Amino acid sequence: MTSELSFIAALRRIAMHPAARGLADDAAVLSLGGEALVLTHDVLVEGVHYLASQDPADVAWKLVATNMSDLAAKGAEPIGVLLGYTLQRDDDERFLAGLAEALAHYRAPLLGGDTVSGAPAQVLGLTAIGRATYRPVPSRSGARIGDALYVSGPLGAAMLGYEALRDGAGDTLAYRRPRALLGEGRALAPLVSAMMDVSDGLLLDAARLAHASDVTLAIESSTVPITTPEPRRYEALRWGDDYQLLFTAPASAALPVKAHRIGEVLAPGPAPLLLDGAPLSEADGLGYEHR
Amino acid sequence: MTSELSFIAALRRIAMHPAARGLADDAAVLSLGGEALVLTHDVLVEGVHYLASQDPADVAWKLVATNMSDLAAKGAEPIGVLLGYTLQRDDDERFLAGLAEALAHYRAPLLGGDTVSGAPAQVLGLTAIGRATYRPVPSRSGARIGDALYVSGPLGAAMLGYEALRDGAGDTLAYRRPRALLGEGRALAPLVSAMMDVSDGLLLDAARLAHASDVTLAIESSTVPITTPEPRRYEALRWGDDYQLLFTAPASAALPVKAHRIGEVLAPGPAPLLLDGAPLSEADGLGYEHR
């Protein structure tokens, strides 16, 4: 089996277009007719990204939210989505209900797609198309040495929600119905130097931003807002699915939305991250690796 | 299990956008910044749309070609594609080779996408984005009574290619490497009243065009060009995968590309099709129904 990383590396070699950043991570940005179009495609697999026992309405919501979060990180507003749907379950109606709810919430119309039967497990694909509201469109690669590092809100809520769902007790909402921060992304786009959404865990995603920008990010763990009890702080920094925005901006910038300063941008060192002064790299298991 | 048709009908109810024609059939058309964007998404499932034993390079080619053919029917030129890919096979490299070849052939860069592991069968999704070269963008719904009906080239080659592949003897190319007629679509766009690609069989797709345009299409079977021996004419009219263009235009129009006049557009009658004068409807099994 080809590993995902080598497959993506090979894909990148055939992707000659400068917009081809969007392979398994960043959204693609295309100039068209005086607009900048933002394109993202996410796939969720039953049994891998969600359990067959989950409410399909929640799965549909998450499918939409993950893509909307990619648009949020680009300061884009949704134009619409295309759905790839494998029919096979008795509860397609629940999926439709969640899809309708999510699309209405994000004001993202369904433009088209394809439905197929016969797949042995459900595989859901969603393409989201957005229009950038500010250019240059924020990317992961623009962090400047001396900038401050921010996160838009607390981490760990999705982790607690997942555990509540697993255990059948407690508040599951944050895990089941994540919110993509489209408004915040649009407000931040004009002043950030780099931005991305935290989908795979703060540390892992911060390392990606550091690599893309060729910098080291110094994070002070105690300044990261969390919703978990304090003893679980480091777990919260490694859990994904919260869809907060992670961004860098000049330390002097007046932010238009509430955000938490969690660190600073340093010249590139031996590791992409310094957590409380200690070097950390992907080998340290920073978060949820894409499967 | 929800049937595909009822699922699509339900999807259409939540798809409030006027561009939402593209559910399992037509591509979506969106106006953006003075351009018309054409968007299409097709899904291929291993064991349903192709066999696990097929060369993945051919599967990749077909995945690209089916989407490019949707663009061709809109007179659009490709801007790029997004890929949803389930990693799991030992021959991902072959897939990549075919993908690179097809994308180079159609000058459609890979813009992004998502790769995932762990799916029990391969499910491939491709979103193609194109730019309309002529507006109004051709649709299925514009056929006018009195127009002539045309097909761009012969049918049946894919059927023979499939049989050759199945039997291990003969020319398999037309089935393995279908050609999307992008150049022909662009040349025809300014003068057609309705256009679509023949992906599910001439009769079935013609019935769809008839429904969309609220007309009846009279087809003279002997005038349809086929590559099969004469006794298999009616099979050729029901087989898909040839990706020829089916279109209507004023009978007086001088066509910029070679095409075959196969019938005419009549006022709507009791059936969407008249084949050699006999009414035919979908109940007669017109071709390859989407699965």
Q: What do these coordinates show?
A:
The structure is a homodimer of 291-residue chains. The first copy, chain A, is of the alpha+beta class. Chain A folds into two domains: 4-132, PurM-like, N-terminal domain (60s Ribosomal Protein L30, Chain: A, 2-Layer Sandwich), CATH 3.30.1330.10; 148-282, PurM-like C-terminal domain (Phosphoribosyl-aminoimidazole Synthetase, Chain A, domain 2). Helices cover 27% and strands 27% of the residues of chain A. Chain A has helices spanning 4-14, 56-72, 92-105, 157-167, 173-176, 182-188, 202-213, 233-236, and strands at residues 22-23, 28-32, 35-45, 76-87, 110-117, 123-132, 148-151, 194-197, 216-219, 245-249, 260-266, 273-275, 278-280. Chain A has a seven-stranded mixed β-sheet, with helices on both faces. A five-stranded mixed β-sheet of chain A has the order 2-3-6-4-5, with helices on one face. The interface between A and B is large, with 73 and 74 residues.
Total helical elements of chain A: 8
* CATH class membership of the largest domain in chain A: Alpha Beta
Query: Outline of chain A, from the CA principal axes?
Result: globular
Total domain count of chain A: 2
**What is the subunit arrangement here?**
homodimer
Strand segment count of chain A: 13
How would you name the CATH homologous superfamily of the largest domain in chain A?
A: PurM-like C-terminal domain
* CATH topology term of the largest domain in chain A: Phosphoribosyl-aminoimidazole Synthetase, Chain A, domain 2
H-E string of chain A:
HEEEHEHEEEHHHEHEHEEEE
Instruction: Give the spatial strand order of the biggest sheet of chain A.
Output: 8-10-7-11-9-12-13
Poorly predicted runs of chain A: none
Estimated helix fraction of chain A? 25-40%
Instruction: Give the mean pLDDT of chain A.
Output: 90
> What is the makeup of the main sheet of chain A?
7 strands, mixed
The helix-and-strand class of chain A reads alpha+beta
The interface involving the most residues is between: A-B, 73 and 74 residues
